[in-house]
Amino acid sequence: MDNIFSVAEQFSSPGRIVEVREFGNGNINTTFLVSLDVEEEKHFILQCINTQVFSKPELVMHNMHVATEHISRRLRNAPLTSDRRWEVPRVLPAKDGRDYWLDTDGSFWRALSFIDAQSFDIIRDVEHAREVGCALGTFHALLSDLPTTRLADTLEGFHITPLYLRHYDDVLAKHGAGTSPEVDFCVKFVSGRRDLAYVLEHARAQGKLDLRPIHGDPKVNNIMIDRTSGQAVSMVDLDTVKPGLIHYDIGDCLRSGCNSLGEETGKWEEVQFDNDLCRAILRGYFSTAGGFLTDNDIAYIYDSIRLITFELGLRFFTDYLEGDVYFKVNRPGHNLARALVQFRLTESIESRAASIQDIIRDMR
Ligand code: GN1
Ligand code: MG
Questions:
Q1: Which helix (H) or strand (E) holds 43?
Q2: Which of 191, 350, 330 is nearest to 266 (CA)?
Q3: pLDDT of residue 1
Q4: Distance between CA atoms of 309 and 297, rounded to whole angstroms?
Q5: Cα-based distances in Å from 244 to 35, 60, 155, 217, 250
Q6: Which residue has the CA at smallest separation from atom 7 of ligand 1?
Q7: Of the residues 23, 27, 265, 304, which should be mutated to test ligand 1's pocket, given the most ligand atoms within 8 Å of the CB?
Q8: Residues forming CATH 3.30.200.20 domain(s) in the chain
Q9: Is there a contact between 7 and 101 (Cβ–Cβ < 8 Å)?
Q10: Is the distance from the beta carbon of residue 237 to the nearest atom of ligand 1 less than 6 Å?
């Protein structure tokens, strides 16, 4: 990697760069916050895209442009009725006019405007939970009239659980799992739930669920909260915006939001799914997205929560077995620890199935 200051200087900015520091805790891309010596717009976000994961980063930029321009146009024509401030990250051009810059070693860099609001890894309370749901619903509603044909498939197979299961089988056959109580637990966990993997893709094949523009990664820390009002004001991390089932987003948002210990906790045995936070997130979601949800959409919400939680556990566990080739790790066994958290959360969701279904029914 070139000197990080000189990378930041490749992008047009209204001031002199005074600081560049690592920012956030993404599992895939590397993110920096660039600070400038000006009063307005004094920060921007600089990111190095992981091209092992996003093999066609130009298409990621294409989708980001299409989605953000669509949302901005809609907001200009018809501002949100709720009086909510809603911000969209802007792509900042490089000095050569392109929307990215390639390093001497081929690394793919891009810059985005900074959204001046707070981000949390764990939901603080039910008000915050409601705002998280409102944000996802607002995002879905703003993109609901964008034809999916306008968006490229930037990450083939993303959230198609049967494909993750097939990859897991291949990895297990090739690398084996070794034995430890944790690994044995995971192997048994997956083998007891193989049918689950197909639930959303079958519904899609049967015509019950349709592709729509989705965010792809609506975890709690991608939803920006205004420091004074406590309202959600933006959804960031638009790399995975592409056609998909909104259920991938709903499931992912709930598995992230309703785990009060967070996905990086070391106390995996204590992980539980919090029904109160679930109710609050869904209330927020239905208040902003309720208008376009069909009966089938609602009928598959419970399955999506269970499935996407299981799927993330499967993705982490597979990556552990494969030698940490996908998610960034900061210690040996990190991906195994993350898998245990998601599997334990899946168990908790299963044990609360009836009460979660009640919550969903109350939303209608
Ligand atoms: C990855 O890098 P990050 O944190 O934005 C992953 C998501 C997972 C998430 C789990 C492209 O997102 O699918 O839910 O980690 N993104 C991709 O923390 O695989
Ligand atoms: Mg992401």
A1: strand 43-49
A2: 330
A3: 54
A4: 18
A5: 35, 15, 11, 11, 12
A6: 217
A7: 27
A8: 1-115
A9: yes
A10: yes
Choices 3.30.300.30, 3.90.1200.10, 3.30.310.180, 3.40.109.10: CATH for 117-364? 3.90.1200.10
Q: What percent of the residues of the chain are helix, what percent strand, and what percent coil, each to the nearest 5?
A: 50, 15, 40
Q: Which residues contact 122 (CB under 8 A, 6 or more apart)?
A: 220, 259, 260, 261, 262
Whether residue 207 contacts residue 61, with contact meaning beta carbons closer than 8 Å, is answered with no
Q: Tokens at residue 2, please?
A: 């070139």
Closest CA relative to residue 84, chosen from 39, 17, 131: 131
CATH superfamily of 1-115: Phosphorylase Kinase; domain 1 (3.30.200.20)
Residue 213's pLDDT is 98
Ligand 1 pocket member 263 (CB < 6 A): yes
* Averaged pLDDT in 10-residue chunks for the chain of 364 residues: 87 94 94 95 96 96 97 91 88 95 95 96 98 98 97 97 98 89 97 98 98 98 97 97 98 98 98 98 95 95 98 98 97 98 98 98 94
Strands 91-92 and 108-113: antiparallel
Assign 257 to helix, strand or coil: helix
Q: Tell me the CA distances in angstroms from 360 to 44, 245, 299, 306, 353, one per residue in order.
A: 39, 18, 9, 14, 11
CA–CA separation, 63 vs 239, rounded Å? 8
CA of 252, nearest ligand number: 1
pLDDT of residue 2: 55
Tell me, what amino acid is at 213? Answer: P
Quote the CA–CA distance of 342 and 306 in Å, as a whole number.
10
Residue bearing the CA closest to ligand 1, atom 1: 27
Give yes or no for residue 329 CB within 6 A of ligand 1: no
Q: Token match 């598995």: residue?
A: 255
CB atoms within 10 A of CB 180: 11
Q: Which of 216, 176, 159, 194 is nearest to 318 (CA)?
A: 176
Q: How far apart are CA 274 and CA 356, in angstroms?
A: 10
What are the start and end residues of each CATH 3.90.1200.10 domain in the chain? 117-364
Three-class SS state of 122: coil
CA–CA distance, 243 with 230 (Å, rounded to integer): 30
